[in-house]
Amino acid sequence: MPKLTVAGVGEFDVPQGKRLVQALIDEAGTDQLHACGGVARCTTCRVRFVEGEPDKMTAAEQEVLRARGVTEAGVRLSCQIVCDHDMSVELISRLEGSGRKDQGGPVADEIQPQPVWVEK
What we know:
By secondary structure, the chain is α+β, with helices and mostly antiparallel strands. It has helices spanning 20-26, 59-67; strands at residues 3-6, 10-13, 18-19, 46-51, 56-58, 75-77, 82-83, 87-91, 117-119. The chain has a single domain (3-96, 109-119), classed as Roll (Ubiquitin-like (UB roll)). It is globular, with a radius of gyration of 13 Å.
């Protein structure tokens, strides 16, 4: 099982292949946002990688980050990342203080849209 470390929260075992956005909510118990339901449209599920940033990303993630002007190194969309190795992240987008009524709609078990992998 991969280990997920969330800065200021703790370290958690995550089922192999689980989407990071789901692991942040289910295993880590955080209030991570995912307003678009985890389909790479809104950037509310952003995290900052401390260690273990994946070498590849989905084309959808790359496109939405570029379109929204997100250029900071290590900032990624948790809805487009699979927990398949140990990683350490900082939360950027949380329900607390966001003014939103909830974290977002249900997130599918598989990455949506169907992933096309690109080098970051």
